[in-house]
Amino acid sequence: MKTRPLLFLFCTLLMVFAIIKPAIAEQSQLVLVASVESTAQLFTPAQLRKLFLGLSSGDRDSGIHPLRNLSDERLYHVFLQKVVFMSARNYERHLLVRVINMGGKRPPSYTSHANLVRQLNADPSSVSYMWAKTANSTQGIKVLQKLW
Does some domain include residue 142? Predict the structure, then answer.
């Protein structure tokens, strides 16, 4: 008879998880975004990593400008971990050393979602990253590919 309350609790927890799982998954999906006017196409993981590291990967990414999305700290760290494979400290150091040694500029960073979207729309050759849920609810941008 004591198993019924445990079974009820287990079934209740399963139902709650089934309800909240899609919301959690959508918030944790990292996607690459661009303006709806963009002609950018799919990138391989290596091409995307090189793009955000400021390294050339050939003709594939010529003319594409990466924009760093710093509007959400968790998003930025997930991006660095899953796409660039570096900590924030090492990534910033890499960008700084690259600018000092080779010239050029670091990819611009945006702490405001609205400013990032404005820049994506102003420059159709730019790309950035955000949560899928945010991308799907933002007008003027399109999802190019799922990153993680």
Answer: yes
Helical segments of 29-129, H only? 45-53, 73-79, 88-102, 113-122
The alpha carbon of residue 113 and the mean position of all alpha carbons in its chain are separated, in whole angstroms, by: 12
| 78 in a structural domain | yes
Tokens at residue 77, please?
């760290």
Q: What is the pLDDT of residues 56-99, one digit of tens each?
A: 655 544 689 999 999 999 999 999 999 999 999 999 999 999 99
* Sign of the CA dihedral running 35, 92, 79, 86: positive
Residue 137 lies in a domain: yes
93 neighbors 41 (Cβ within 8 angstroms) = no
**Mind listing the pLDDT tens digit for each residue in 97-113?**
999 999 888 999 999 99
Collect all residues with Cβ–Cβ distance below 8 Å to 137 and sequence separation of at least 6. Answer: none
Cα dihedral across residues 43, 47, 49, 55: positive or negative: negative
Evaluate whether residue 67 is within a structural domain.
yes
pTM of the model: 0.79
CA dist., res. 83 & res. 37, Å (int): 24
Which pLDDT band holds residue 140 (cuts at 50, 70, 90)? Answer: very high
